[in-house]
Amino acid sequence: xxxxxxxxARALADAGKASRPYIDFDHxxxxxxxxxxxxxxxxxxxxxxxxTAAGAAAVSGxxxxxxxxxxxxxxxxxxxxxxxVGPIGALVNTPAFQEIERIAASLTAQKSMIEIAKAxxxxxxxxxxxxxxxxxxxQSAATESATEAANLKAALAAKEKxxxxxxxxxxxxxxxxxxxxxxxxxxxxxLIVEAILKDGAEGRKILASFKPAQKPAAxxxxxxxxxxxxxxxxxxILAEYRSKTGEDRRKFYAxxxxxxHAASSAE
Length: 267
Hints:
8 helices, alpha+beta, rod-shaped, 267 residues
């Protein structure tokens, strides 16, 4: 209600139909110390003002310490209106209400609000409600941005997994096609797939080392086997291959592919 009356009085003054509301010194009705711009609520009724040079000097120089308001009240003591003409309060050193906060503290809070408004890209005269609304808007935007970033990250991870799965499927199919004409042990296939995925050129060298099976040439000497029915040297190579893991196993393949192939076929 008080702010509505203040804004109406300011509008009339801007239109040249009335004198502007102001704050003087010691209720003397003389020089203006400040021009009131807005009433607002912050642990009580507060008044935002634009200081005149004299008013700013009086406050910063601690010549005056308090603001003493002028208003009308009903019989119950409820504030009903501010003066329609003349000052609506004054800078004083002995206020009528001892509970009134010192201007220095109020001015510090006002300056803090001005700095917050400027940081938010709002005008210095922005009301507290505008400042809070802007903060809420920025918080909402930050939440939306975080959600959007999380969604994009999840979508990217899904696409990367899809691409990896497609690549694995393609390489697996390549190995199976080669195995159709070359005897590749089942246990070796996933290792070859991993080798190709890690380094395509090196992995395919291992794959190519598995040659298509050939029938023994006519007149070739019979296969010599040990007591177990297996070539002893081939069995040793196969056993050594199976004992290796990782990169060592792949390198062993590349160096002993024919022997491993022959020993695996003889099992």
